[in-house]
Amino acid sequence: EDEEGYKPFESRVVVTVARDLSTGTVVLRRASVITMNGNEVIDNADVVVEGNRIKAVGRRGSVQIPDGAERIDLRNKTIVPGFVDTHAHMWPNWGLHKQQVWMYLANLAYGVTTTRDPQTATTDVLTYSDKVETGELIGPRVYSTGPGVFSGERWRDADHARDVLKRYSEYYQTNTIKMYMSGTRQTRQWIINAAREQ
Predict the structure, then answer these.
(1) Helix (H) or strand (E) holding 161
(2) I need a labelling partner for 53 at 20 to 30 A (CA). Which of 12, 70, 145, 162 fits?
(3) 61-97 burial, b if ≥16 CB within 10 A, otherwise e?
(4) Is 0.85 topped by the overall pTM?
């Protein structure tokens, strides 16, 4: 056990890397587009994408195509919105970061463009998320709770719960937690209150 009142010295190191954002303009032509507007499907459509944003969708010839836009013919194809997997445990080997993760490529191939891991077991997933965002890895967006909050933490009181949850908001930069078998009702209330404060 740590001595009562001991506070370790903390020195923060901030590494800033630019996000990998698409540039240029592309027009996806002649595909059928499932729009998510009720049951609407637009056949023989044009989809205009500028940078990393969809700017226009409509029947071929109904939307303005910017000069110099690259045109890609997708005749006999279907365009759907990206799928979001909210319970994705895409875990490569722990402790050794890979140059590319096959699971990320497989998810993209099946149209999954965003994932959320609800309990990562380690912090490696947080690093992989950063690598995807900066373009060092090809993959869907990766969100996570960070490691789960379990009973093994030996919760002492509400202040202890605040200290533990501070890791998640300040160091892991997660917006949600996974609380699983974390002890008594009192313990769970400490954790919920601490999470709300972060």
Answers:
(1) helix 158-166
(2) 145
(3) eeeeeeeeeeeeebeeeebeeeeebeebebeeeeeee
(4) no
Other C-beta atoms closer than 10 Å to the C-beta of 181 total 10
pLDDT in tens, the chain (198 residues): 555 778 788 888 888 999 988 899 999 999 999 998 999 999 999 999 999 999 999 999 999 999 999 999 999 999 999 999 999 999 887 778 889 999 999 999 999 999 999 888 888 888 899 999 999 999 999 999 888 887 666 788 999 889 888 888 888 888 888 887 777 888 888 888 888 887
Asked whether 22 and 138 are in contact (CB, 8 A), the reply is: no
